[in-house]
UniProtKB/TrEMBL annotation:
This is Transporter substrate-binding domain-containing protein. Residues 23-244 form the Solute-binding protein family 3/N-terminal domain. Residues 1-19 form the signal peptide. Keywords: Signal. The keyword Disulfide bond does not apply.
Length: 246
């Protein structure tokens, strides 16, 4: 009887540890240059390294759920993934995403690309109105642009396919984050076929990690925020982002 009681007590003692031993699932959509795949097809890029370090500091193994943005968001909504990085807050997303503090970076400009031989000026916002503008499916850009019913939009699964549509003449312009646009426009497939327009939009929202409200790890939100706060305070995040710019 005593042996049975001891065994039961041991099982109870290990139960929390087993619960804590689950992995952290990152919903992973490629978003170059911050989230990309290396030559072996493995997740890479500065945002990936930030999450790897966060997982290490909270003592959780990290796994990746590869998905386009819309499916990644659905996985977060359903609680099949725990974390996303590089997704911006919106009122609708706030119903199923909990954005962690502190922000890990600030955003940069939104820019526009045209085909190289397009003579039309694209320097003022109103220059967009006669055009069909390529956007990425599920991406939120800037509030004024997002809610402007005058803009004709053509959605693509991602920016790579958006650049292909632009080069092929299926859209007139493309809106994209400045760093992502520069990386894609420099590819041999697009070099010389597209050009950056003069028009830019400010994108001032801070970058924050998103934790799924239905994630089994949501009760550990404070641990995640403490680890993230430490990474920002000790310069780890700055070093990771700076290394990516070299």
């Amino acid at each position: 009887m005593k042996k049975l009681i001891v065994l039961l007590l041991c099982c109870l003692a290990f139960e929390p540890a087993l619960a804590d031993a689950r992995e952290l699932v990152l919903a992973y959509n490629v978003f170059e240059p911050w989230k990309k795949l290396d030559a072996r097809g493995e997740p890479a890029g500065p945002y990936t390294e930030i999450v790897r370090e966060l997982a290490r500091r909270v003592g959780l193994p990290l796994s990746f759920l590869h998905c386009p943005l819309s499916r990644c968001l659905a996985a977060m909504q359903q609680g099949r993934a725990d974390l996303m990085i590089g997704v911006r807050p919106t009122p609708e997303r706030s119903r199923y995403l909990d954005f962690l503090m502190p922000p890990f970076a600030t955003s940069n400009h939104l820019v526009f690309y045209q085909r190289s031989g397009d003579p039309r000026a694209l320097a003022r916002y109103d220059d967009l109105l006669p055009l069909t503008v390529g956007v990425a499916e599920g991406v939120s850009y800037e509030a004024g642009f997002d809610h402007d019913a005058r803009i004709r939009r053509e959605a693509s699964p991602g920016m790579e396919s958006g650049f292909r549509k632009l080069a092929a003449g299926r859209v007139d312009a493309l809106i994209v984050n400045a760093s992502q646009g520069a990386a894609l426009a420099a590819r041999p497939e697009f070099a010389g076929r597209v050009k950056r327009a003069a028009l830019t939009l400010d994108d001032r929202h801070p970058n924050r990690l998103a934790l799924a409200l239905r994630s089994p790890l949501h009760p550990r939100k404070a641990d995640l925020e403490q680890a993230l706060r430490g990474m920002v305070a000790d310069g780890t995040v700055t070093r990771i982002l700076a290394a990516a710019r070299r």
